[in-house]
Protein backbone atom coordinates (compact mmCIF):
# COMPACT_ATOMS: atom_id res chain seq x y z
CA UNK A 1 0.00 0.00 0.00
CA UNK A 2 2.89 2.39 0.55
CA UNK A 3 4.42 2.09 -2.95
CA UNK A 4 7.67 0.44 -1.80
CA UNK A 5 9.15 -2.50 -3.58
CA UNK A 6 8.44 -5.93 -2.19
CA UNK A 7 9.50 -9.41 -3.11
CA UNK A 8 7.23 -11.49 -5.27
CA UNK A 9 7.05 -14.49 -2.99
CA UNK A 10 7.71 -12.69 0.27
CA UNK A 11 11.17 -14.25 0.54
CA UNK A 12 14.39 -12.29 0.47
CA UNK A 13 15.63 -13.98 -2.71
CA UNK A 14 12.52 -13.29 -4.84
CA UNK A 15 12.33 -10.81 -7.73
CA UNK A 16 11.44 -7.26 -6.74
CA UNK A 17 8.28 -5.77 -8.27
CA UNK A 18 6.58 -2.43 -7.72
CA UNK A 19 3.62 -2.40 -5.43
CA UNK A 20 0.51 -2.73 -7.68
CA UNK A 21 -1.62 -0.70 -5.27
CA UNK A 22 0.18 2.50 -6.36
CA UNK A 23 -0.83 1.90 -9.98
CA UNK A 24 -4.36 1.00 -8.87
CA UNK A 25 -4.64 4.26 -6.93
CA UNK A 26 -3.41 6.20 -9.95
CA UNK A 27 -5.93 4.47 -12.20
CA UNK A 28 -8.69 5.20 -9.70
CA UNK A 29 -7.74 8.90 -9.51
CA UNK A 30 -7.46 9.25 -13.30
CA UNK A 31 -10.80 7.50 -13.84
CA UNK A 32 -12.41 9.76 -11.26
CA UNK A 33 -10.91 12.84 -12.97
CA UNK A 34 -12.23 11.61 -16.33
CA UNK A 35 -15.71 11.31 -14.82
CA UNK A 36 -15.48 14.83 -13.38
CA UNK A 37 -14.21 16.43 -16.61
CA UNK A 38 -16.88 14.80 -18.74
CA UNK A 39 -19.56 15.84 -16.24
CA UNK A 40 -18.29 19.44 -16.26
CA UNK A 41 -18.42 19.54 -20.07
CA UNK A 42 -21.96 18.14 -20.06
CA UNK A 43 -23.15 20.74 -17.55
CA UNK A 44 -21.41 23.68 -19.24
CA UNK A 45 -22.73 22.76 -22.67
CA UNK A 46 -26.22 22.08 -21.33
CA UNK A 47 -26.53 25.61 -19.93
CA UNK A 48 -24.96 27.33 -22.94
CA UNK A 49 -27.77 29.41 -24.39
CA UNK A 50 -27.88 33.10 -25.24
CA UNK A 51 -30.72 35.24 -26.58
CA UNK A 52 -30.02 38.60 -28.13
CA UNK A 53 -31.93 41.27 -30.04
CA UNK A 54 -30.23 42.13 -33.29
CA UNK A 55 -31.09 45.22 -35.33
CA UNK A 56 -31.62 44.66 -39.04
CA UNK A 57 -31.44 47.78 -41.24
CA UNK A 58 -33.43 47.62 -44.46
CA UNK A 59 -33.08 51.23 -45.46
CA UNK A 60 -31.15 54.20 -44.12
CA UNK A 61 -34.39 56.16 -43.67
CA UNK A 62 -36.32 53.49 -41.79
CA UNK A 63 -35.80 52.41 -38.20
CA UNK A 64 -34.16 49.03 -37.68
CA UNK A 65 -36.19 45.89 -37.34
CA UNK A 66 -35.31 44.06 -34.14
CA UNK A 67 -34.88 40.34 -34.55
CA UNK A 68 -34.58 38.14 -31.49
CA UNK A 69 -31.93 35.49 -32.11
CA UNK A 70 -31.09 32.58 -29.83
CA UNK A 71 -27.83 30.65 -29.91
CA UNK A 72 -27.75 27.15 -28.44
CA UNK A 73 -25.29 24.30 -28.54
CA UNK A 74 -27.92 22.10 -30.27
CA UNK A 75 -27.78 24.26 -33.40
CA UNK A 76 -24.24 23.17 -34.37
CA UNK A 77 -23.45 19.56 -35.19
CA UNK A 78 -19.89 19.76 -33.85
CA UNK A 79 -21.19 20.78 -30.43
CA UNK A 80 -23.84 18.05 -30.51
CA UNK A 81 -21.05 15.58 -31.25
CA UNK A 82 -19.08 17.00 -28.31
CA UNK A 83 -22.07 16.63 -25.98
CA UNK A 84 -22.87 13.07 -27.08
CA UNK A 85 -19.24 11.95 -26.85
CA UNK A 86 -18.95 13.42 -23.35
CA UNK A 87 -22.12 11.63 -22.25
CA UNK A 88 -20.69 8.38 -23.64
CA UNK A 89 -17.34 9.07 -21.94
CA UNK A 90 -19.09 9.82 -18.65
CA UNK A 91 -21.11 6.61 -18.71
CA UNK A 92 -18.12 4.57 -19.83
CA UNK A 93 -15.75 6.07 -17.25
CA UNK A 94 -18.27 5.35 -14.50
CA UNK A 95 -18.69 1.74 -15.62
CA UNK A 96 -14.94 1.38 -16.19
CA UNK A 97 -14.20 2.60 -12.68
CA UNK A 98 -16.63 0.04 -11.27
CA UNK A 99 -15.04 -2.72 -13.33
CA UNK A 100 -11.57 -1.58 -12.28
CA UNK A 101 -12.58 -1.82 -8.64
CA UNK A 102 -13.97 -5.30 -9.24
CA UNK A 103 -10.81 -6.27 -11.13
CA UNK A 104 -8.76 -4.97 -8.23
CA UNK A 105 -10.58 -7.25 -5.81
CA UNK A 106 -9.69 -10.40 -7.71
CA UNK A 107 -11.61 -10.77 -10.99
CA UNK A 108 -9.17 -11.21 -13.85
CA UNK A 109 -9.38 -10.86 -17.62
CA UNK A 110 -10.65 -7.30 -17.91
CA UNK A 111 -7.30 -5.48 -18.26
CA UNK A 112 -6.83 -5.77 -22.02
CA UNK A 113 -10.53 -5.18 -22.69
CA UNK A 114 -10.45 -1.98 -20.65
CA UNK A 115 -7.39 -0.77 -22.56
CA UNK A 116 -9.10 -1.30 -25.91
CA UNK A 117 -12.29 0.41 -24.72
CA UNK A 118 -10.26 3.27 -23.20
CA UNK A 119 -8.55 3.75 -26.57
CA UNK A 120 -11.91 3.89 -28.33
CA UNK A 121 -13.30 6.44 -25.86
CA UNK A 122 -10.12 8.52 -26.09
CA UNK A 123 -10.34 8.55 -29.90
CA UNK A 124 -14.02 9.52 -29.73
CA UNK A 125 -13.28 12.27 -27.22
CA UNK A 126 -10.37 13.70 -29.24
CA UNK A 127 -12.38 13.67 -32.47
CA UNK A 128 -15.36 15.36 -30.82
CA UNK A 129 -13.08 18.02 -29.36
CA UNK A 130 -11.57 18.57 -32.81
CA UNK A 131 -15.02 18.96 -34.37
CA UNK A 132 -16.03 21.43 -31.67
CA UNK A 133 -12.82 23.40 -32.17
CA UNK A 134 -13.63 23.61 -35.88
CA UNK A 135 -17.10 24.97 -35.12
CA UNK A 136 -15.69 27.44 -32.60
CA UNK A 137 -13.00 28.76 -34.96
CA UNK A 138 -15.65 29.26 -37.63
CA UNK A 139 -17.92 31.08 -35.16
CA UNK A 140 -15.04 33.19 -33.86
CA UNK A 141 -13.46 34.14 -37.19
CA UNK A 142 -16.32 33.72 -39.63
CA UNK A 143 -15.72 32.81 -43.27
CA UNK A 144 -15.66 35.71 -45.68
CA UNK A 145 -15.60 33.44 -48.75
CA UNK A 146 -18.82 31.72 -47.71
CA UNK A 147 -20.37 34.95 -46.44
CA UNK A 148 -20.54 33.85 -42.81
CA UNK A 149 -20.10 36.59 -40.26
CA UNK A 150 -18.34 36.30 -36.93
CA UNK A 151 -20.84 34.93 -34.45
CA UNK A 152 -18.82 35.40 -31.28
CA UNK A 153 -18.92 39.19 -31.59
CA UNK A 154 -22.66 39.12 -30.98
CA UNK A 155 -22.86 36.04 -28.79
CA UNK A 156 -19.82 36.33 -26.54
CA UNK A 157 -21.35 34.57 -23.54
CA UNK A 158 -22.09 31.31 -25.34
CA UNK A 159 -18.73 31.42 -27.11
CA UNK A 160 -17.02 31.65 -23.73
CA UNK A 161 -18.95 28.63 -22.47
CA UNK A 162 -18.20 26.66 -25.63
CA UNK A 163 -14.46 27.32 -25.52
CA UNK A 164 -14.44 26.42 -21.81
CA UNK A 165 -16.15 23.13 -22.53
CA UNK A 166 -13.70 22.41 -25.37
CA UNK A 167 -10.70 23.05 -23.11
CA UNK A 168 -12.10 20.82 -20.35
CA UNK A 169 -12.91 18.15 -22.93
CA UNK A 170 -9.33 18.22 -24.23
CA UNK A 171 -8.09 17.89 -20.65
CA UNK A 172 -10.37 14.87 -20.25
CA UNK A 173 -8.96 13.36 -23.45
CA UNK A 174 -5.44 13.80 -22.13
CA UNK A 175 -6.47 12.22 -18.82
CA UNK A 176 -7.69 9.19 -20.78
CA UNK A 177 -4.36 9.08 -22.62
CA UNK A 178 -2.44 9.05 -19.31
CA UNK A 179 -4.91 6.48 -17.95
CA UNK A 180 -4.17 4.18 -20.89
CA UNK A 181 -0.41 4.53 -20.43
CA UNK A 182 -0.64 3.84 -16.68
CA UNK A 183 -2.90 0.83 -17.29
CA UNK A 184 -0.54 -0.62 -19.91
CA UNK A 185 2.48 -0.13 -17.67
CA UNK A 186 0.61 -1.70 -14.74
CA UNK A 187 -0.43 -4.73 -16.80
CA UNK A 188 3.10 -5.08 -18.10
CA UNK A 189 4.50 -5.07 -14.55
CA UNK A 190 1.91 -7.61 -13.42
CA UNK A 191 2.70 -9.92 -16.33
CA UNK A 192 6.42 -9.78 -15.53
CA UNK A 193 5.89 -10.66 -11.89
TrEMBL record:
Give the membrane topology, semicolon-separated if more than one. Multi-pass membrane protein
Segments spanning the bilayer are 27-47, 79-103, 115-142, 154-187
For this UniProt entry, what is the primary localization, expressed as one broad class? membrane
Q: Spell out the subcellular localization from the entry.
A: Cell membrane
Listed under GO cellular component are:
plasma membrane
**Name of one Pfam family that matches:** CASP_dom
Query: Which InterPro entries does the UniProt entry name for this protein?
Result: CASP/CASPL, CASP_dom, CASPL
Q: List residues of the Casparian strip membrane protein domain.
A: 24-174
State the superkingdom: Eukaryota
> Which keywords annotate this record?
Cell membrane, Membrane, Transmembrane, Transmembrane helix
What the entry lists under PANTHER family is as follows:
CASP-LIKE PROTEIN 1U1
Q: Which family does it belong to?
A: Belongs to the Casparian strip membrane proteins (CASP) family.
Q: How does it assemble?
A: Homodimer and heterodimers.
For this entry, the protein name equals CASP-like protein
Organism from which the protein derives: Coptis chinensis
